[in-house]
Amino acid sequence: MKKLNLLYIILLGIILTNCGNTKNGENSIFTIDNSTFKPFYTAKDVLKVGVLNPNSKTIDSIVYFINEIKISTTKGNAGLDFPFNNQKLGYQNIKALVYFGGDSSEANARVELVSDVQPKLLKYTIVNTFPHDTAAYTQGLEFYRDTLFEGTGNGQGASGKKGISSLRKTDYRTGKIYKKVELAEKFFGEGITVLNNKVYQLTYKNNEGYVYNADTFKKEKTFPYFKNMEGWGLTTDGTNLYMTDSTENIHILDPNTFQPIGSIFVYSLDSKIKAVNELEWVNGKIYGNVYQKDAIAVINPKNGAVEAIINLADLKKKITQKIDTDVLNGIAYNTKTKTFFVTGKNWDKMFEIKVSE
């Protein structure tokens, strides 16, 4: 088990981060009692929250909130037992709104909820090997109506040659490109996904994305990001969009307004997994490349826990090592064959693989 734990750390580049409780305001009349708080909590734990009353005020009631959602109202200075079993992973912001003598005061703290799931190490077998355009700095990959869609960026390799960002349809068997639209040089294309016959494409640092007609590639809309951030990976569950931004955060977006409607934070045990890149939604799970790591993390979208890992390091030994060959990136799932198609930035090959436990 220790060897597997070490493998997870190596594959995903885990950076351990210590949790921290936000300090109660020094001038606050009341404070959250954090004397029994643990460094980390999991879904099996129950958080016990109480309020310290150093000035012995007569408390009428306390309204407790977790992540700004009202949880409970208690009479007097009664505490709260909050089970974490249905909560998403990440920092849990605790607020106690204390009512006393016709007045009110607020106390705040936070704890960190981490995963208690030991990730499985999945196996894979290579089913087929296909050619891939070495000029394609792959950022997004997805099957739609039996056609492989690919989004590329304009990354610059060791040769100094800079690519051109594009959206393309390809014949995956031959590598032939039969429809392509290119972005202007100043735009760095990123992740793509297809929803309701529309292709959504992100940009890296341009703080905007695009919507195309999936048949014609005619651009229908340019949408700004809801905040200043980088665009990385993109996928869909058939209703909403899921977007990564280089952190452990996966934003859940409304595809019509591109505004956030939720988020999940990716954890492997008690470690945040940052730099989740290209995404693919498969059978209710999110499969994500981890940037600069030759591995795919299988993520539970309900809470953000990494449930499994696919180590694809050996694939890089099977491609031609050219000067601009870059990292593994690109996951497309073929629902008919129930196989994955994976490649990398400027790789000369694409692999069809079958994944198993």
Report what the structure shows.
With 357 residues, this protein is mainly beta. The chain has two domains: 20-113, Immunoglobulins (Immunoglobulin-like), CATH 2.60.40.10; 120-356, TolB, C-terminal domain (Neuraminidase, 6 Propeller), CATH 2.120.10.30. The protein has one helix at residues 2-12; strands at residues 31-32, 46-49, 51-52, 59-66, 69-75, 80-83, 90-100, 103-113, 120-131, 137-144, 147-153, 166-171, 176-182, 189-195, 198-203, 208-213, 219-224, 234-236, 241-244, 249-253, 260-265, 267-268, 271-272, 276-282, 285-290, 295-299, 306-311, 328-334, 339-344, 349-356. The strands form eight sheets. Strands 24-25-26-27-9-30-29-28 form an eight-stranded mixed sheet. Strands 5-4-7-8 form a four-stranded antiparallel sheet, with no helix packed on it. It has a four-stranded antiparallel sheet with strand order 10-11-12-13, with no helix packed on it. It is elongated, with a radius of gyration of 23 Å. Residues 14-26 have low confidence and may be disordered.
